[in-house]
Design brief:
single chain, alpha/beta, GMP Synthetase, Chain A, domain 3, Rossmann fold, 2 domains, seven-stranded mixed sheet, four-stranded mixed sheet, 7 helices, 39% strand, globular
């Protein structure tokens, strides 16, 4: 017997099983998993995928310590969060590292859909930026973001704004050198909110979700939104940034706003 999928986030492993697997078999597999992975103290079963604007998932306890709170390390940073109430993907660690490496000294950065402030903290901890603003609608994620900012000692660099980006971002008066948009898989692009807040020659990192045969729609969407915002842009790159379902991928477009 094998798990269909495995995610290890610090002390917690989240396993996915086929529907035909009985609970007693899952628990036995989970106990063996703990024996083989000494750094893991809790094994959970993923019972439902991430859903909705808050990207909440459901898991079920199988073995070890009965907790859903993670202590996770990546990119010289440490994060605490609840795996059910806060969206987090360990598979995006290299993506976060790459974006952090693009940031230059004394830049101001805006992160929309900031979650537990992982993008903001990775940037603030590893680069000499002036300021990072992270906007997140979830109160629960924002609560953990405050904890994580203190843990990583970046309170003087990272600012949190709790609320809907549609309402909160237009209230921010300053413009940013870079805007990062790790948005949920929703119909709204939110580019109408981002374009007014980026500096001339600034860059927006926009994430979209498409089947490979449809990825041309991403370029078309960005160009259309830029026209509506009366912005001249140059799409520097479109790269595949991970899969989210069979034959469907997360793509990142690096968009330079020329005027």
């Amino acid at each position: 017997m094998k798990a269909l999928g495995t995610d290890i986030l610090g002390n917690i492993a989240i396993l996915k099983f086929g529907r035909e697997i009985k609970t007693i078999e899952k628990k036995k597999f989970a106990e063996n998993f703990l024996e083989e992975h000494k750094n893991v103290t809790t094994v959970l079963e993923k019972t439902d995928k991430f859903k909705g604007r808050l990207r909440i998932q459901k898991t079920k306890f199988l073995a070890g310590l009965n907790t859903k709170e993670v202590l996770y390390k990546e990119n010289n940073c440490i994060f605490r969060f609840n795996v059910d109430t806060c969206y987090f993907s360990p598979r995006l660690a290299s993506e976060r590292k790459e974006l952090s490496s693009k940031v230059r000294k004394n830049e101001n950065i805006l992160v929309m859909f900031g979650g537990i402030a992982v993008y903001a903290i990775v940037i603030a901890k590893n680069q000499k930026v002036a300021r990072v603003v992270s906007v997140e609608i979830s109160r629960e994620c924002n609560r953990y973001a405050k904890i994580n900012i203190k843990k990583n000692k970046v309170e003087n660099i990272v600012e949190l704004i709790q609320g809907d980006v549609k309402k909160k971002v237009p209230l921010i008066r300053e413009k940013f050198d870079r805007i990062i948009m790790p948005r949920p898989n929703l119909k709204d692009s939110f580019l109408d909110v981002a374009f007014p807040r980026v500096k001339r020659n600034g860059i927006i990192y926009y994430y979209g979700f498409y089947k490979e045969k449809d990825k041309g729609e991403l370029k078309e969407l960005i160009e259309n939104e830029a026209k509506r915002a009366r912005k001249k842009i140059k799409i520097l790159r479109i790269k595949k940034a991970g899969d989210i379902a069979p034959y469907k991928f997360r793509y990142r477009a690096d968009v330079k706003v020329l005027s």
